[in-house]
Design a protein that fits this description.
InterPro entries: M1_LTA4H, Peptidase_M1_dom, Peptidase_M4/M1_CTD_sf
Shape: globular
Helix content: 10-25%
CATH superfamily of the largest domain: tricorn interacting facor f3 domain
GO molecular function: aminopeptidase activity
Enzyme class: hydrolase
CATH class of the largest domain: Mainly Beta
Number of helices: 8
EC number: 3.4.11.-
Keywords: Aminopeptidase, Hydrolase, Protease, Signal
Distance between the termini: 22 Å
Number of domains: 3
Strand order of the largest sheet: 4-7-2-1-13-15-14
Largest sheet: 7 strands, mixed
Length: 460
């Protein structure tokens, strides 16, 4: 994530503990047959039009999908993550993301704080069959500095677009937004998003973007992205420039007028270096281009990664760009259930960040006595941290998690660790991984029994 800042300094302090939302457990039926993650291969076709300053976007969205489960699919869940902070709103102040005029199924009442909409399909969808649902979308950007919020004349629309939720062996995943970290779990899909907006607004977005003149005074920005788990965009009077990395990746840098030129230059340099280096280490970045959206006023929020676009709090000495670029691989390319297993993306991104900066991790061998509590473990879910333990989140997930991976590198040896991670990413490319998958990959890389290692680092 994300909303915490990880630069060259290896350890950073936690912010104050915030109020949390309770977790609602995913439905589970022990007697149910094992189900593949579904609905898969989603394809999103979206057309939205903005008002004069990009605070309101309205239009229509269609999502088609395939049932990958042997069990017929009788309904699908649409996640309205943009409602995570505001919930169902209040009289005179509706939720920021609203949908209506649903076609292709029958909607049920909104659930999980108005972040989940179940749509019953007209008939159960058989294994391998494909269908679609459509709905009107109305998005109002909240008046706060946030990944989904306002920053002066600039608008950030991260987690604003409704997405298909996932069902797997654990049932429907309808976890809440707990107010920190991420709760997201989506399958890779394709997006075609058409944004009609005033010409004065510059609109960076996920994917490969083209622009054309619209009606007088307006521009139509079309973004196409393949194999991504989410779609984000921004709008405002950004300054911009484009560079190409030595490895051939197009970097589009956008920043606000008050963002320091030195910070912009440092972030662009670090992004260029890290996207190429991680491409060699983990597998080439597959999306062709990458947008950096930078502001100096995001200090109360921080940074956030989205596929092909990162939002960065940028000061004269730079930003957390490298950690966020690492997320393009860990959660972006190699997906995971971020609510159930936050370590599988945050620990890996921080490990990659430290590798890039060549940090000295020789002292990164915490013993059992340094765990923040007897119940702490690297593989705890966001439900654990949301239950009054937020103070453990960064200490365990970011710091101890990265240390565990450095320690594993010492056990395997650096060349073997590099080969193992490259193969692990290849084997789960645009798929979903679990802790069990990673443990299996690591054990296959050595004749040494890693059982004691997993126990020491509480990787369960």
């Amino acid at each position: 994530m994300t909303s915490l800042r990880f630069w060259r300094a290896p350890l950073l302090a936690l912010a104050a503990v915030l109020l949390l939302l309770p977790r609602t457990a995913a439905a589970q039926d022990p007697a149910a047959p094992v189900r593949a993650a579904t609905p898969e291969h989603p394809s999103y076709d979206v057309a939205l039009s903005a008002d004069d300053d990009g605070s309101h976007w309205t239009g229509r969205q269609t999502v088609s999908f395939r049932n990958a489960s042997r069990t017929p699919l009788s309904s699908v869940d649409i996640r309205l993550w943009g409602n995570g902070t505001d919930g169902c709103g209040a009289p005179g102040k509706p939720s920021p993301v609203r949908v209506g005029r649903i076609a292709g199924g029958t909607p049920r009442p909104l659930a999980v704080g108005c972040t989940a909409l179940r749509i019953d399909l007209p008939a159960p969808l058989p294994y391998g069959a494909r269908t679609s649902v459509s709905f009107d979308v109305a998005i109002t950007v909240p008046d706060r500095i946030h990944r989904f919020g306002k920053d002066g004349a600039h608008r950030y629309l991260g987690n604003a677009l409704p997405l298909l939720s996932v069902r797997d062996a654990q049932g429907p995943h309808l976890d809440p937004d707990v107010g920190f970290g991420e709760s997201f779990y989506t399958l890779a899909g394709d997006f075609r998003v058409v944004l009609d907006h005033p010409r004065a607004l510059v609109v960076p977005a996920t994917g490969t973007t083209t622009r054309r003149a619209g009606t007088p005074g307006r521009t139509v920005t079309t973004s196409v992205a393949h194999g991504v788990r989410d779609f984000a965009w921004a709008a405002g009077p950004f300054r911009s420039r484009t560079v190409t990395t030595p490895g051939g990746i197009r970097l589009n840098a956008y920043w606000t007028a008050t963002t320091s030129p030195e910070g912009v230059a440092t972030s662009v340099r670090d992004t260029s270096g890290s996207v190429d280096e991680f491409g060699k280490r983990f597998g080439r970045y597959p999306y062709g281009e990458l947008d950096l959206v930078m502001s100096d006023t995001l200090d109360d929020f921080g940074n956030m990664e989205f596929p092909g676009l990162v939002l960065l709090w940028t000061e004269p000495d730079g930003s957390g760009a490298v950690h966020e670029i690492a997320h393009q691989w860990f959660y972006g390319i190699v997906g995971n259930d971020q609510f159930a297993s936050p370590w599988l993306d945050e620990s890996f991104a921080q490990y990659a960040n430290q590798l890039y900066y060549r940090e000295d991790t020789a002292a990164c061998r915490p013993d059992q006595g340094e765990w923040p509590s007897d119940t702490a473990a690297l593989t705890r879910s966001m439900a654990y941290y949301a239950d009054g333990r937020r103070s453990e989140y960064v200490q365990v997930v970011y710091l101890r998690g990265a240390c565990a991976l450095h320690d594993l590198e010492r056990v395997l040896g650096a060349p073997a660790m590099a080969r193992m991670l490259h193969g692990y990413v290849r084997d789960h490319w645009l798929g979903v991984t679990t802790t069990k998958d990673f443990k299996r990959a690591a054990q296959a890389a050595t004749a040494t029994d890693l059982g004691p290692f997993w126990t020491e680092h509480r990787i369960r």
